[in-house]
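[step 3/7] inverse_fold.run input=structure_tokens len=156
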């Protein structure tokens, strides 16, 4: 994380991931072929150092997925998080414009029900968009990769 400490802008989860957000992305298989696309809406509410993040995904094949994260900042640049499809606890670190987040995730039964290791790298751009790159591994081998953008939802 020291690589990002002096970079800017400073990624503050409470201000940059807060309120209504739109996420758009693609999922790639182990050989780099795009396997699906998605759009999601996030509803993020902070109370002090705790937040609830509700995610609602719609994939290009019409399937939907919902997840609710519960997150606690530790006051020292780190955080822990929990979700129903995350066995145990997730842990993340913030530094400069970067948030690195590591956790196990259980796939839906329709996708095999396997537990994968996820490594999320989120970077805040100067324009306020968050670029997310996630790798998913099984037995140390990359089985999928996700690339997405997250931005504030424009309210008209």
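[step 3/7] decode complete -> sequence:
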């Amino acid at each position: 994380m020291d690589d990002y400490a002096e970079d800017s802008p400073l990624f503050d989860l409470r201000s940059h991931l807060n309120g209504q957000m739109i996420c758009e992305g693609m999922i790639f298989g182990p050989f780099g072929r795009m396997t699906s696309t998605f759009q999601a809406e996030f509803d993020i509410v902070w109370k002090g150092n705790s937040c609830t993040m509700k995610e609602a995904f719609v994939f290009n094949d019409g399937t939907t997925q919902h997840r609710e994260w519960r997150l606690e900042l530790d006051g020292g640049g780190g955080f822990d998080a929990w979700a129903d499809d995350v066995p145990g606890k997730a842990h993340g670190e913030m530094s400069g414009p970067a948030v690195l987040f590591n956790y196990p995730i259980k796939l839906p039964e329709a996708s095999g029900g396997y537990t994968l290791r996820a490594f999320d790298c989120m970077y805040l751009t100067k324009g306020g968009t968050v670029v997310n790159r996630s790798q998913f591994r099984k037995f140390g081998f990359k089985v999928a990769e996700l690339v997405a953008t997250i931005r504030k939802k424009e309210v008209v």
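[step 4/7] annotate
The two ends are 38 Å apart (CA to CA).
Strands lie at 19-28, 34-47, 50-59, 64-73, 78-82, 90-95, 98-106, 115-124, 130-138, 141-152.
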